[in-house]
Amino acid sequence: MTDAPPNVTLIAGGLSFAGWKGVSISAGLDEACRGFELGVLDVNLPTDQPPGNPILVRPGTEIEVWNRDQLVLTGFLDRISISTAGESSNISMAGRSKTADLVDCTAFPSRRRWTERDVLTIAQQIAQGYSVEVVWGLNEPIPKVGKFRLQRAEKCLQAIDRLVKPLGLLLTDNPDGQLVITRVGATKASTALESGQNILASDGTYDASMLFASYFCRGQIALATDDPANLLAHVEGGTQEDIAARERSLEIIPSGRTPPGRCQTLAEYEAQTRSGRSVSVRYTVNGWTQGDGTLWEPGQLVQVTDTTQAIVAELLIAAVDYTLDETAGEQAVLHVYPRAAYELLPEPERKKRKRRRKGPHDGIGVWIPQVGQLQIGIGGVIATGALQIMSSGKQPQNVKKIPKKRPDKKEWWGLTNPKKKGG
Fold this sequence. Notes:
The chain is 10% helix and 40% strand. By secondary structure, it is mainly β. Strands 1, 2, 3, 4, 5, 6, 7, 13, 14, 15, 19, 20, 21 and 22 form a 14-stranded mixed β-sheet that branches. A 4-stranded antiparallel β-sheet has the order 23-24-25-26, with no helix packed on it. A hairpin with a 2-residue loop joins strand 5 and strand 6 (70-85). Helix 2 (119-126) runs antiparallel to helix 3 (156-164). The longest helix is centred in the middle third of the chain and has 16 residues, at 262-277. The radius of gyration is 30 Å and the shape is globular. The N and C termini lie far apart (92 Å).
C-alpha cells in the first residue's frame, strides 16, 4: 500500500496506511460529523497474520486522516471491507469523526437539569462520558440559559442542538474531532472563487418548489386584563415575495404564546430561509486547501465571482467533499448557499410572569356537579345550560357567581349536590 505518493495517510493503532487510490471525505453543517472512505486496489495481503485480522487494525480503532502535513479528520474506524480475486485484494476503510458518538449515543450526564448556566458548560456536561471535547468557536461572551432540561432517551447531539438553536447558534466539527458551537459566517475563506481562476466546474440548482408568494403567521398573546373574555388576543404578521410567479400562500403557526412583532419576524424569516435554500451551487477546485494552506471548511463565507452562473456575491460554504482519485488527483467540491439558508432566528427571552393568588375556580376548568348538567367555569364565573361564549359586552343572563369556598372532592366530581348543605 505504499507504492503511490503518500498524499493521504491513515494513522490507526500506531500504524500508517498510505498509497490510497480513492479517497472521499465529507464535512458539513447539516451533520456536525465528518465521514471518510478510503480505498486501494491490487493489494497483496500478508499471509502470516492471525485469523480475522489480515491488516493489523480492527473496526473501532481511533484514527487520524492526514493530507501531507494537514490534519483532516480525527475519529474512529467504523468499517473495513476486504474483497479478493485471485492473488490480489481490494481494501476499503470507512469511519467518522469523534462526534459520531454524540450523534449515536444517549446522554447520561451526572445531572439532567440546569439553571442559569452558560451553554458551553451544559453542552460539555451532556457530552461527558464520551471522548468528545465541546469548544466555543466565537470571539464573544458565552450566553447563559435560564432553564434547560434533558429529555429522556435523548441523543447527545439532539440535546445540544436543542440547547443552542434558540440562541441562533449552530453545531459543526473540526479536524481535531471536537464539537464546535459557532454561528453562521463566523469565519471567512482567505481565497475567493473566480471563474477562469480556480473554479474547475460549477453545478447550480435553482428550485422554486419550496417558494411561496405570501407568508402569513398567526399566534396568540396573553393580555394583562381582569376581563376573562380578553385573556388572549390574536396577533398576525405577513410578507409577500416576488419570486413565485403565481399565487402560493403559506401559513405559519408558532408554538406557544407570541409576543408583539414576533409574527412579522417569523414570516420574514420563513421567506428568507426558503429563498436561500432554493439556490445551491457546487464548485469544484483543485486541492483541498486555500491559498494560505488552510483547509476549505464548512461554515466559511466565500466571495464568489462566477460568470457562468451569473453570481457575484458572498456565499456560505455549507459542506465540503474532499476527494482523491488517480484521474483527477486532489479536488475539493464546495457546496455553497446564500447565507440566509442557514441563518438561525434567536427566540425572544421569555419574561418571568408574576403569579397572582388564584381562587378555587380561577382559570378555565370543567365542573360536573350532577348528572345531566354541564357547567364551564371561567375566572370564578359559572355558566349553566348551553355553552355560551363570553364577550367584553353583555354577560349571559343565566350566569351566576359561585362562592369562593373550595368544594370537597365529592362535590367537585359531582357525587353530591353542592347546593345542599350537609350532602
